[in-house]
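User: I'm new to structure prediction. If I give you an amino acid sequence, what do you actually give back? Let's try with this one:
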Amino acid sequence: MMTAGYVIAAKAGLGILIVGILYLDIPRQMARNFGFNEVPGANSIPWLRLKGIRDFATGAVDLARRC
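Assistant: Good question. You get back a string of structure tokens that encode the predicted 3D arrangement of the chain. For your 67 residues, that looks like this:
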């Protein structure tokens, strides 16, 4: 049975999965959207992509637990 809490949590998992994909695809744009005053330089892209991997994995695990 799908409760309202289940649906909300599934949507949150999907949202963080999408954020992770976007951080992997367009890390500098996502950092700007996140609220950095200054766009990070090229040397920070690996760290932004690492955040993308973390967010993607978190969202994927959350969604996998709900299936």
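You can read the tokens as a compact description of the fold. Here is one thing that stands out. The chain is about 80% helix and 0% strand.
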